[in-house]
Amino acid sequence: MLNLILFGPPGSGKGTQAAKLIEKYGLLHISTGDLFRYEIENGTPLGLKAEEFMSKGELVPDEITIGMLKNKVNDNPEVNGIIFDGFPRTLAQAEALDRFLAEKCLSITALIALDVPDEEIVQRILSRGETSGRSDDNDESIIRNRIFVYNEETAPIYNYYAESGKSIMIEGVGSVDVIFNRLTATIESVC
Ligand code: B4P
Questions:
Q1: Which residue out of 16, 35, 147 has the highest number of ligand 1 atoms within 8 Å of its CB and is therefore the one to mutate?
Q2: Atom 6 of ligand 1: nearest residue by CA position
Q3: 124 is catalytic
Q4: How many angstroms separate the CA atoms of 103 and 111, rounded?
Q5: Which residues pair with 4 in a beta bridge?
Q6: Which residue segment(s) compose the domain that 134 sits in?
């Protein structure tokens, strides 16, 4: 099974590239951001809780996020592999993911990080905010808080998987197709 973590700061293009990768490789796409937005749209208790954090550009607590992720994996036992998009975002999530996969005799194949400078990210997210209706997309101070939280809590996960030789950084600036070609070349070198 090909189990990939698509990694990078907010707005680095994880969701954009995951949509193309699942088509090419027939993988299950799990985006914790999309799962939370679905819960918010449906006004569920989980959605109401998640919105408190997301609207401020903060992370949703691990206990909520990890349980939701496990349910999604368990609901899809027959897949060829999984693209984890936006998960893990804390070291506790990464450790929980590894333990959970190990119980199923599975593991992460590789973590592929998209490298995009902060100013490019701010511009991308602000322009998405013109149409996305997302409360975390149209206020520059919230976007900068998301980048701060990424650097503090999420970026160390790169080194965590680097210890087992699984982390790969690729250039995340360029057209969507150019980045997709970089990603597929990288994936084909690890599987
Ligand atoms: P996410 O939904 O994961 O969103 P994201 O980081 O904004 O997006 P992504 O990197 O996927 O960017 P995209 O392709 O859309 O998270 C939102 C929030 O949910 C978090 O802040 C947090 O509160 C919560 N959350 C999610 N997972 C969590 C977890 N595990 N633990 C705790 N909390 C969690 O691209 C962005 C924009 O750039 C788009 O407009 C796109 O069109 C554009 N773009 C993409 N590629 C481009 C390119 N090559 N050139 C120019 N523009 C490009």
A1: 16
A2: 10
A3: no
A4: 20
A5: 83, 110
A6: 2-27+79-190
Ligand 1 neighbourhood includes 166 CB (under 6 angstroms)? no
Classify residue 4 by its DSSP letter: E
145-183 pLDDT, tens digit each: 999 999 999 999 999 999 999 999 999 999 999 999 999
**Omega before 9 within 30 of 0, i.e. cis:** no
The pTM (predicted TM-score) of the whole model is 0.94
Instruction: Determine if ligand 1 sits within 6 Å of the CB of residue 154.
Output: no
CATH number at residue 20: 3.40.50.300
Lookup: tokens for 148: 């701060």
Asked whether 15 lines ligand 1 (CB < 6 A), one says: yes
Report the candidate in 157, 116, 169 with the shortest Cα–Cα distance to residue 9: 116
